[in-house]
Structure formats: structure tokens, C-alpha cells
Amino acid sequence: MKKKIVIVGLGLIGGSLAMALRGFEDYEVVGVVRRQATADYAMAHGVGDAVTLDAEEALRQADVTFLCIDPEDIIHYLAEHRDHFKPGSLVTDVCGIKGAVMAAARVLPETVDFIGSHPMAGTEFSGIEHAQADMFQGAHYILTPRPNSGEEHLALLERLAHHIGCRDVVRTTPERHDDIIAYTSQMMHIIAVSVCDDRELFECQGFEGSSFRGCTRVADLDVELWTQLFSLNRRALTAALDRLAENLDAYRAALRSGDDGLLREKLAHSAARKHQLDLGARPASPYYV
Amino acid sequence: MKKKIVIVGLGLIGGSLAMALRGFEDYEVVGVVRRQATADYAMAHGVGDAVTLDAEEALRQADVTFLCIDPEDIIHYLAEHRDHFKPGSLVTDVCGIKGAVMAAARVLPETVDFIGSHPMAGTEFSGIEHAQADMFQGAHYILTPRPNSGEEHLALLERLAHHIGCRDVVRTTPERHDDIIAYTSQMMHIIAVSVCDDRELFECQGFEGSSFRGCTRVADLDVELWTQLFSLNRRALTAALDRLAENLDAYRAALRSGDDGLLREKLAHSAARKHQLDLGARPASPYYV
Predict the structure, then answer these.
(1) For the whole prediction, is pTM greater than 0.90?
(2) 3-state secondary structure (DSSP) of residue A200
(3) I need a surface site. Which of A16, A138, A233, B90 has the fewest CB within 10 A?
(4) Are the beta carbons of A207 and B140 closer than 8 angstroms?
(5) Cβ pair A191:B196 closer than 8 A
(6) Number of domains in chain B
């Protein structure tokens, strides 16, 4: 019998993962969904090799289980299904925060390995109908292993990440992940929604260019998902926003002062930082996180 | 003798304009530059039909003059060359602020028409070597006419805008332009540099996705140009940043409060605004402003 990768939740990320994982080594890719309509769509569109509504049966057979549902649902699912995972198997996730998920995974029996995953890809859309096989092209794949996570499981996830098109695999701790993600991803979403709260938003048509679009693109977000992600990373996100407010205030003060020399100096400093960052960068996924 | 469009300054925008305008109606496109090396590059790369270092001679023959130099330089140029423009001709610019330029244009004799232009396109690069003939594809072209600007000159600019690939021509006042641009463009640059001032910037490699890149792309900016643009629109930009600070503070307060219901509500409100905006949008230029 073929080995099985089970993907719980065939939304944007789970669906894309299921499409991208077809043909990976000798695994059969099985989706677990809650509605027949989703199952029908999955089979009609190559989203996985098979699909089922019977979660418990699928988990019992899974060698690898990806939990691709909302963060709060992941936390509940781990508790609800703790005794359904196959001993020796690997359970992982795709969630945009890691601390709360790793904490919830402590409910699992010792015989079940859990490694946190975060493939950094996505679009502003939701749902299986927006899933894409190339979603992860050029994306970073972040892993947060536990001290006793099996090297063979880590190696498996690394091979899997490369198979789906990720450009690199980054191992880190849940704390570091959440701290940095608060800045690189979550804060970008708070910026986008804050910009769109401006009373001038609807006056901008005819006056917007791609810097405006680039900044605000993610504002039409999945409200439930992002409420959970922000809430589960409240401390780090609040800290990142405090730093942003200070940095913005420094520019506001420079502007108000009328001192063009100061403004020029600040812009030169900031631009040089971005230039330096770019010197270290390589071409990356067009998909957001 | 052919009619002439003279483009003063063959940098990123002037160079792109010169490339894009070749073949427009029955005009010869003549670049005016300060260095022989730029002139040589222009002729080797199809940046205009001809190029000269003799500004005064070119202006005397120009039916249309585009001033594609930094804002402060435009202001000085108008005064320095006020008596060199051909009577009956049109002078315009490409500058990202309009109030200061329209005020400076009052120095021109009555026989010379001035209409403010702002083709909303650009990239984070500078210089003739980054000029592109398709720079203006899908861009908005904003016009700020004077009360006595000739309809035939306005019509000419509209035809020209369409020739270079702009998707629409928007007529507005200098004040409205500057107010809205403060929000849609200038504020985006202040956000980008503020985000890059964060101490975590260099820790982000391996953790950034395209929302981060989309927000920070414009941070490696032309320092002199943007210092001038911000300085010449200080009041409106400061007002836009004050509004942003309030909107960010509202999200920060919702996060600190721990009230997920409030956070969810705010996100739903902001996302709905963006969704509504997108419903009115059409595909646009990939180039930023």
C-alpha cells in the first residue's frame, strides 16, 4: 500500500499543496474536507489523488498529515484527534503563527511527531477555487522542529518543500518565527488596512500607481483567518507596530521641522538600508505572505 | 520643417518619454541634456530622434517642451529660460507635485502656455539607462490646466498621453492633485522607508513574502528627487501621515485591548472598503508612482 500524505482542509493553501504534492515520491495525496461539494471540486480539478469526508479513517492511515485549516481550528483539531494519528507518523501545519500551534501540539501522544511548518505563500483570495499548483514557487518554507523531532521527518519535509517549488527551507524556533513574522507579514496587513481606512480612499481613482497597489493589495483579507493570526501573536505584533509608529513619527517630525537637510539625511539612510537588503536578495515568489 | 517636441532631461522619465514619443503624429522628438555621454547614449538607444546640449536653441524651436528634471530645477529653469520659449508654444512637466510648479510657471510670458502634467509612472531606478518605451503603459496621465490654457494644447496632450500608452487622462486642479498624491504616492514612500528603518530589517531574509516586498519596494528611492517632492508638498503630506497615524493607532488599540470581536469588526470594515475599491478598478500599469 502506498504511503499517504493527508491534507486536512482544501482551501487556498491546502488545495494548492494537494495539487503541488501530486507525484511526490511514492505518496498518495488524500484530502480531507467537510463538504461533498468541495470533494467533488477537488476530484474534478486534480486537487490531490483522492478525497474523503471521513477524517478519522484518513488520519489513521496517514504517514504525514498537513493541517491546513484556520489557527483556532488547528488547535482544536489536535486535541480532538490526538488518538487518531498513526503512531510514528508526522503531523504538521501551514499556519502563519507557530508558538500557539506548537503549544497545542503538546497534546499529541509521544509516538506522534509534530513539526511546525509555514510555507510563506498565499494570495489575497480564499478557497479551493483559487488554489494553484505553482503557489509555492520561490517561496520560503519555514520549519519549527521540536527538540525530539525525527531527522528523517525533517529531511522528508525538506524534500517535500523542494518538490512543491520552495526556494529554501529555514529552520527556526517558534518564538523567532512569530517575532519576525509579526514584522514581515502581519504588520504589512495592518498597514494595508490602515491605509484603506483613510477617508480619501475612494478619491484615489485616477491617482493611484503601483506603489499604492503594492501597499494595499493585501487589505481585502480573509477576516477570520487574520483576526486569529493577529490575536495569537498579539505581543509581537504590538511590538512591531510600536516600532513602526516611532519610525513614522521620526519622519513626521522631520517634515514638520521644515529642515530639508534632515529629511534628505533620513531618506538617504533608509534608502541605503533597503539597497543593502536588496544586494543580498534573490528572485522570489510573486505570491504574498 | 517638422514640429518639435523638446524633452529637457533624459533621465528615467524624460528618457522613457522620448522613447515612447517617437512616431507621434508629425513631431520630431529632441532631447536636451547637459552631458555628451548622455547624448551619445540617447542616440545609440533610440531615446528621441535627436539630442542637443544647446538648451536655448532647442527651446526657441520647440512647439512643445517637456521639463523632465527635478522639481527645484524646473522652478529655476522656468525663470532662467522664460524668454527662450517660442511664442504660442506649450510648456509642460512630468513632476510629482503640481502646486509649486504651477506657481513657478507664472513667470512665463502670456504668449507661452503652461499646463501641468503628471504621467503616473516610474520605477525605483534612475537614469537614462533604465528608461523604457513602455513605461507609461496603463498609467494615469494627470493634467492641471490654467484657466486660459488652450483647448488645442489640452487636446494635444491627451492625444500624446494615449500615444505613449496611458490608460486615461485626468484633469484636476494643482491643489487637488497635491492633496491626493500626498496620500496615494508620497505616503507610500514614507511608509516604505519607515518599515525599512526597523531594526529587524536584516533579520527578515528567509521570512519575507511579497506583501513585504510590495510595501518596501520603493524604499530605495532617488533621495534628492523625493526630498524635493516631500518638501514642496509638506502640508498635504503631513496631513496624510497624521491620518495614517490615527488609523494605525486604532488598530494598535484594538490589538492591545484583547477584544477579538472589535478586531474582527475593524478588519471586516477595512477589507470591505478595499473590496469596494477593487470593484471599480481596471487593470493598470505595473510601474509605480
Answers:
(1) yes
(2) coil
(3) A138
(4) yes
(5) no
(6) 2
| Nearest residue on chain A to B136, alpha-carbon basis | A209
Give tens-digit pLDDT for A228-278: 999 999 999 999 999 999 999 999 999 999 999 999 999 999 999 999 999
Q: Which residue of B has its CA nearest to A220?
A: B271
User: Same domain for B216 and B153?
Assistant: no
pLDDT at B289: 44
B242's CB contacts (< 8 A; 6+ apart) are: A252
Residue A74 sits in the same domain as residue A182: no
Tens digit of each residue's pLDDT (9 = 90 or more) over A73-131:
999 999 999 999 999 999 999 999 999 999 999 999 999 999 999 999 988 888 999 99
Please answer yes or no on whether B140 and A216 come within 8 Å at the CB atom: no
Q: Which of B137, B172, B207 finishes a domain? A: B172
Residue that terminates a domain, selected from A172, A195, A221? A172
The rounded distance, in Å, linking the Cα atoms of A102 and A105 is 5
Long-range pairs for A71-75 at CB < 8 Å and ≥24 separation? A71/A95, A71/A96, A71/A97, A71/A100, A71/A101, A71/A225, A71/A228, A71/A229, A71/A232, A72/A228, A73/A9, A74/A101, A74/A104, A75/A100, A75/A101, A75/A104
Based on the domain organization, do B77 and B159 belong to the same domain? yes
Say if B248 is an interface residue toward chain A (CB within 8 Å): yes
Same domain flag for A109 and A183? no
- Give the model's pLDDT for residue A281: 63
What residues make up the domain containing A233?
177-278
Smallest CA–CA distance, residue B50 to chain A, in Å, is 31
Pair B164, B236 in one domain: no
CA distance B66 to A145: 60
Q: Is residue A78 part of a domain?
A: yes
Among B207, B215, B267, whose Cβ lies nearest the Cβ of A191? B215
- Put simply, the chain A residues between 155 and 194 with a CB less than 8 A from any chain B CB are 168, 170, 177, 179-181, 183-185, 187-194
| One domain for residues A156 and A242 | no
User: Do B86 and B219 lie in a common domain?
Assistant: no
The alpha carbon of residue A220 is apart from the nearest alpha carbon of chain B, in Å, by: 4
Q: Which chain A residues are Cβ-neighbours of B177 within 8 angstroms?
A: 207
With an 8 Å Cβ cutoff, are A196 and B273 in contact?
A: yes
Q: How many CB pairs under 8 A join A and B?
A: 312
Residue A195, pLDDT > 80, answer yes
- Kindly state whether residues A252 and A141 are assigned to the same domain: no
Do A217 and B211 form a contact (C-beta atoms < 8 A)? yes
